[in-house]
Amino acid sequence: MRYLNERRARIEIIPMIDIMLFLLVFFAMLLLKMIPSSGHVTKLPTSTTAESLPAPKLLVELGEDGAIRVEHATIAAADLTARLRVMGPKTAVTIVGGQGVALQKVMGVLDAVKAAGVSQIAIAARRAD
């Protein structure tokens, strides 16, 4: 007679918690990818004449160690020039660097961008209050 007894249905919540955690992580990663920069630069230099510009076609990040990052990949200055030549001279380029980046490194990136024939160059800064 033991086999004829009805079993009560159990609702397992542990798989539901796993799915909800997975969705939370998925959406968090998706939102982080929507941010245009990779977040390496934390302190932009200040300027009293800083203006808002439209979103650039190419964002070039310059690390304090001299690394050039484009679209989450570290590249050399010659590779940056080659990429910009393919994109064309009408490409809008914004150079982002922290306060501790040496001016010589910024000039090296500017030379690489100008060697590709690009004339729409901006340097990111935040407005000084």
User: Overall pLDDT, averaged?
Assistant: 81
* Strand residues, percent: 15-25%
Uncertain runs are none
| Major sheet size, sense and barrel closure | 5 strands, mixed
Strand and helix layout:
Blueprint: H1 14-34, E1 46-47, E2 58-62, E3 68-70, E4 73-75, H2 77-87, E5 92-97, H3 103-115, E6 120-123, E7 126-127
Task: Describe what you observe in this structure.
The chain is an alpha/beta fold and 129 residues long. It folds into two domains: 2-34, no CATH class; 46-127, Nucleotidyltransferase, domain 5, CATH 3.30.420.270. The chain contains three helices and seven strands; from the N terminus they run αββββαβαββ. The strands form two sheets. It has a five-stranded mixed β-sheet. The protein has a two-stranded parallel sheet with strand order 1-7. Strand 5 (92-97), helix 3 (103-115) and strand 6 (120-123) form a beta-alpha-beta unit. The longest helix is centred in the first third of the chain and has 21 residues, at 14-34. The N and C termini lie far apart (83 Å).
Summarize the structure.
The chain is an alpha/beta fold and 129 residues long. It contains three helices and seven strands; from the N terminus they run H-E-E-E-E-H-E-H-E-E.
Features:
elongated; 3 helices; 2 domains; two-stranded parallel sheet; alpha/beta; Nucleotidyltransferase, domain 5; single chain; 129 residues
